[in-house]
Amino acid sequence: VFGLSDGLVSNLSLVGGVAGATSERGDVVVGGMAGLVAGAMSMAIGEYVSVRANSELLERELAAERAEIEDDPAGETLELAGIYADRGLDRASAMAIANQMMADPETALQAHAREELGIDPEELGSPVLAATASFGSFALGAIIPVIPFLFGSGTIAIVISFLLGLLAAAVLGGGLALMTKRSVLRGVTRQVALITLAFVVTTAIGNLVGAAV
Ligand SMILES: [Zn+2]
């Protein structure tokens, strides 16, 4: 969802900026497509690196936990029992459950990962999947403002592009508000206001630069 919004805002601004500087339809389409690919690549790479780094960090912590369980099973059993006791179990039950968890090394590792690191070892996250999703959602948002320039040019294309952007921003803002159970009106207004601001600023700068070069 955030990738979609990023793509929309960044490319609506880009298209507005280029269209403000040139009346050539082809230039706007090339600029818009270049902005789409560049932005989507940058999002995908950023996402890949961050998910990758995060899952490597978690794997290192898991490996450390696995080593602790092997080296000091008694200490780790007490540690786990202590966590269960803190949750409100009485000492005997906590110890019984901890012993049961520690009986199988895989179950023991899962229990320690969940209770101590707050992670599920089965769900470390795939960097490639995250990168692909980022690329796709950015590209989807970014293509919207380019569409009018595939069919026309000039002020009418800029206006339609801006209106499409507003519509998409309103849908996104409303959807986000619904998902997070906040005021839909406020969500829509905020998203629409922000995208308008971005568009006005870049179109104005595009006009200035276009007049200067
Ligand atoms: Zn532990």
Question: Shape, please?
Answer: elongated
**Total number of helices:** 9
| N-C termini distance | 37 Å
SSE run? HHHHHHHHH
Q: Which structural class should the secondary elements be placed in?
A: mainly alpha
Main pleated-sheet profile: none
Bound molecules: zinc ion
What proportion of the residues form beta strands (DSSP E)? under 5%
| Helical amount | over 70%
Q: Count the beta strands.
A: 0
What's the gyration radius in Å?
26 Å
As residue ranges, the low-confidence spans are none
What is the averaged pLDDT score?
A: 91
Keywords:
213 residues, 9 helices, mainly alpha, single chain, binds zinc ion, elongated
Strand and helix layout:
Blueprint: H1 2-21, H2 25-71, H3 73-86, H4 91-103, H5 105-117, H6 127-143, H7 147-151, H8 154-179, H9 184-212
Helix pairs in contact: 1-2, 1-6, 1-8, 1-9, 2-3, 2-5, 2-6, 3-4, 8-9
The structure holds zinc ion.
Summarize the entry for a quick read.
This protein is mainly α and 213 residues long. The protein has nine helices and no strands.
